[in-house]
Amino acid sequence: MSDKKEVVNPIESLSKKLVEEQLLAYNNRNIDQFLHPFSKNVKVYTYPNQLEYEGIDNMRSIYCSKFKNTPDLHCQLISRIVRKNIVIDEEFVTANKQKFKAVAIYEINNNKIDIVRFIR
Asked: What's the pLDDT tens digit per position in 69-93?
């Protein structure tokens, strides 16, 4: 048995907090709280590098529509890896009566989620 205490890395703590904040707001369909952790120039990709859209205004438009038009929208966290400013979430998503697993890779820069990559 080890007596070592886990060292809390402030960058990892912030990264985890921002990703957790957006996940909670996503499930509550609260668009303003959902967008708060993201940078105004956020880039969202389909993994590895297919740009889907850029900017908080585009994200607002896309997610306002999802929140309004998908009554069963929900994301359950399966597992999370946090390394420095990168958070990798394995998720179980429900949308439009479909259920699927997805992976989201969040990159945090300047205290905001700056890049998201989805593996579907």
From this structure: 999 999 999 999 999 999 999 999 9
pLDDT at 120: 82
CB 93 within 8 A of CB 99: yes
Phi and psi based region of residue 49 (left: phi greater than 0; alpha: psi -120 to 50; beta: remaining): alpha
| 3-state DSSP assignment of residue 69 | helix
Q: Which DSSP letter does residue 55 get? A: S
Summarize the confidence of residues 22-37 as an average pLDDT: 98
Distance CA 114, CA 58 (A): 14
Total length of the chain: 120
